[in-house]
């Protein structure tokens, strides 16, 4: 377990008003980060969502092309998992160090994070290129859908270092309080992608390969801007060669805390593999396309709640380092109330207008007719996912990796994957795949949130007593 010791109370060295989360309104701090971070994450999502929208409306082959794109998700998820391993560990860890007044340690954490992002991106790119065909067929590809998946992935992988460095290091820009800059970083790449997608896909007639080219160019621009900012004069922690030297102790701490984010993303990949392979076995390629659409809708709808909870991580981490436990309690109540209310409203909208949401991503009549029923099953009790977001956020913000890791594994690996494989085989058929998700939200979300409340309450009482 990674435990970050609280040393004797010190005078906190405040780098700037914007980065001192121990003063002023805790709600304002979260919202000031959440709004630009949510917009940035929404824009970030447009990298893949816009690809899916355009590809889902390709003339004559939209369903198969969309299915082929969906087969690449486990590999993209694994890339995101390694990005989270370092950024989701490094950014909160640096916030805790800054909150405790140790800026030198915070700098070294950032530099080591950057080095590990670059190294892992090159290794992943080499592995995925060498194992592309067997992996895609393992994920549920057929002879009809494999060419689409290969065409997209063989180009998309070129941008692996760009997407990992850009996305991973942008977390440090947000953690310093520069939420608008973090938003612009993503906006730059996503707007470029939106402009280039129709040019390469339709005007140049490159189809799914054109979508991948547009993504790589966009990711390159985002990464260039992030590195430029972090090496410039405005940043609080400046990226420079001497802090990039790997330190085994720091890397272990980063990976220890980031392991929760890694497992969350990697387990998403495991769920996707279980889903696509089972859908192919009990259904057909069209159901893999439906799952691609449902995943896209889920990611799009859940994003504001994720943005709010992600914004709370550095604020909670900073206040934990500063021993401001009362402010953390306020932050937990705030993000829980807002995220649950939002997810309830979203669930109702999905129930009332399922056709409209599906038609955003596909114009295929068969996919639409079979997708509505699947959507109703998949999103049942969608609001319970907010409890998982809140519980995970607090554990990560407090630097408690063991608990965060456990609940990441519990919901996805212990509940979703076994149910996805089991339910279709015991009489639920193809519907069993879509039922597994809501069951996991109810059980996993409740368990994570209740445990977080009990654990954090006990932790704060003990540390408050020790400080007297």
In words, what does this structure look like?
- The chain has 468 residues and is mainly alpha-helical.
- It has one domain (31-467).
- It is built from 17 helices and no strands.
- The chain has helices spanning 26-55, 62-70, 73-99, 103-130, 132-138, 146-156, 160-175, 179-203, 207-230, 248-282, 285-321, 325-352, 354-359, 365-378, 385-397, 401-422, 431-467.
- Helix 4 packs antiparallel against helix 7 (160-175).
- The chain starts with 25 loop residues before the first helix and ends with a helix.
- Residues 1-17 have low confidence and may be disordered.
Proportion in β-strands: under 5%
- Find the count of extended strands (DSSP E, 2+ residues): 0
Helix count equals: 17
Please tell me how large the radius of gyration is. Answer: 22 Å
Structural class by secondary-structure content: mainly alpha
Into how many domains do the coordinates divide? 1
For the sheet with most strands, the description reads: none
Rounded to the nearest angstrom, the distance between the terminal CA atoms is 26 Å
- Mean pLDDT figure: 89
> Helix fraction?
over 70%
The poorly predicted ranges are 1-17
Order of helices and strands: HHHHHHHHHHHHHHHHH
Rough outline? globular
Short account of what is shown:
The chain is an all-alpha fold. It is built from 17 helices and no strands.
Key terms for this structure?
468 residues, mainly alpha, 17 helices, globular
């Amino acid at each position: 377990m990674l435990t970050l010791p609280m040393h004797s109370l010190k005078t906190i060295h405040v780098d700037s008003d914007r980065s001192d989360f121990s003063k002023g309104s805790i709600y304002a701090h979260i919202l000031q980060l959440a709004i630009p971070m949510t917009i940035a994450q929404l824009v970030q999502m447009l990298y893949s969502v816009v690809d899916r929208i355009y590809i889902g409306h390709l003339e004559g082959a939209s369903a198969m092309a969309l299915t082929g794109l969906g087969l690449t998700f486990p590999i993209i998820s694994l890339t995101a998992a390694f990005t989270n391993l370092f950024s989701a560990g490094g950014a909160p860890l640096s916030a805790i160090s800054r909150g405790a007044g140790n800026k030198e340690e915070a700098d070294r954490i950032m530099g080591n994070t950057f080095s590990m992002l670059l190294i892992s991106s090159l290794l992943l790119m080499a592995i995925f290129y060498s194992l592309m065909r067997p992996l895609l067929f393992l994920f549920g590809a057929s002879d009809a859908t494999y060419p689409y998946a290969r065409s997209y992935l063989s180009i998309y992988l070129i941008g692996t270092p760009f997407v990992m460095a850009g996305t991973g290091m942008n977390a440090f820009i947000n953690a310093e309080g520069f939420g608008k800059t973090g938003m612009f970083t993503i906006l730059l790449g996503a707007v470029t992608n939106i402009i280039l997608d129709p040019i390469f896909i339709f005007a140049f007639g490159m189809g799914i390969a054109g979508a991948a080219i547009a993504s790589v160019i966009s990711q390159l621009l985002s990464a260039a801007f992030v590195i430029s900012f972090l090496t410039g004069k405005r940043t609080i922690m400046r990226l420079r060669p001497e802090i990039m030297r790997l330190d085994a102790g720091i890397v272990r701490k980063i990976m220890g805390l980031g392991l929760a984010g890694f497992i969350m993303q990697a387990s998403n990949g495991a769920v996707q593999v279980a889903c696509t392979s089972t859908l192919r076995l009990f259904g057909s390629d069209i159901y893999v396309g439906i799952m691609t659409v449902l995943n896209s809708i889920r990611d799009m709808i859940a994003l504001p709640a994720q943005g709010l909870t992600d914004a709370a991580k550095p604020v909670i981490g900073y206040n934990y380092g500063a021993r401001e436990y009362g402010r953390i309690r306020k932050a937990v109540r705030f993000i829980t109330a807002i995220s649950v209310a939002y997810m309830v409203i979203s669930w109702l909208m999905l129930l009332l207008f399922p056709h409209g949401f599906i038609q955003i991503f596909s114009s295929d009549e068969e996919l639409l007719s079979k997708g509505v029923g699947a959507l109703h099953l998949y999103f049942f009790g969608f609001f319970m996912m907010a409890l998982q977001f809140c519980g995970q956020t607090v554990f990560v913000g407090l630097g408690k990796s063991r608990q965060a890791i456990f609940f990441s594994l519990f919901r996805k690996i212990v509940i979703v994957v076994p149910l996805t494989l089991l339910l279709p085989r015991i009489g639920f058929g193809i519907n069993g795949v879509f039922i597994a998700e809501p069951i996991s939200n109810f059980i996993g979300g409740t368990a994570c949130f209740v445990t977080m409340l009990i654990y954090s309450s006990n932790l704060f009482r003990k540390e408050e007593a020790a400080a007297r």
